Amino acid sequence: MKLLYEGKAKKLFKGPQKGTIVQYFKDDATAFNAQKKDTVIGKGIINNYISSRIFQAINQTDIPHHFIKRLSEREQLIKEVEIIPIEIIIRKVAAGTICKRLGIKEGQVLPNTLVEFCLKNDELSDPIISREHIEMMQLANNFEMETIISTAFRISDFLTGLFSMIQIQLIDFKLEFGRFYNSNGFHEVILADEISPDSCRLWDIKTKKKLDKDRFRRNLGGLIEAYTDIANRMSIKLPELNVEK
Predict the structure, then answer these.
(1) pLDDT under 50 in the chain at which residues?
(2) C-alpha to C-alpha distance for 216 and 220, rounded to whole angstroms
(3) What's residue 244's pLDDT?
(4) Is residue 216 in a domain?
(5) What 3-state DSSP class applies to 168?
């Protein structure tokens, strides 16, 4: 397959049909804009299975997305989209960078779900930007932004319910969207990228144990065990992982 793009956690290859992409999940773990790097054997496989299951669950709604099907342990078939270079961060509980930026205590429940935007640019360390910046840089038009925001809130509600059923609290998460063009050249804005413990902060409801990539960011250890715990709670049958525990 022809490699089209390689990011920190995934590779994209030309798909078997026109308008499709094969998304490959790597075992690379990065944090702090790739200043911290490592390889965690099996991480990509677990993320692929969890993200696939979540997108399959989203099929119960009318939220448009890029996922078509899981192809293998590490690969998904997805729709080809033009990624909008904005990361959308939805925060329900204070954690991570917002605590450092605003002096908010970690674990504080926010009075309202907060939506933040970051410019998707590794060289600039993905800086926070405003709607005015997005308009000024012509990253997305007003209609696209309204679609992104309203869809993000719907996904937030859906994921909150999905995770709460398995005794997991959704703290915050990152989304990306893309433009999907039809045969007539018109496009709609659809959900893209992945939804996994790499892109979500997930805590056990009772113990507040971190079950996400913060285990790597903060040197807590047990990342594979935490990701596997999530998969087990979602009744996902994982392949046997060749992991040294």
Answers:
(1) 244-245
(2) 6
(3) 47
(4) no
(5) strand
Side chain identity, residue 109: V
- Is the domain of 108 the same as that of 15? no
CA angle 157, 79, 32 (to 5 degrees): 60
- In which domain, by residue range, is 52 found? 3-81+222-233
CA distance 57 to 199: 17
HSE, CB side, 13 Å, CA atoms: give it for residue 67: 23
Instruction: With both helix axes pointing from N to C terminus, report the angle between 142-164 and 43-58 in degrees, rounded to the nearest 10.
Output: 100
The backbone torsions φ and ψ at residue 130, rounded to the nearest 5 degrees and listed phi first, read -105, 175
CA angle 191, 195, 197 (to 5 degrees): 165
Q: What is the amino acid identity at position 169? A: Q
Q: What is the pTM of this model?
A: 0.95
Question: How far does CA 61 lie from the centroid of its chain?
Answer: 18
Q: Which amino acid is at 179?
A: R
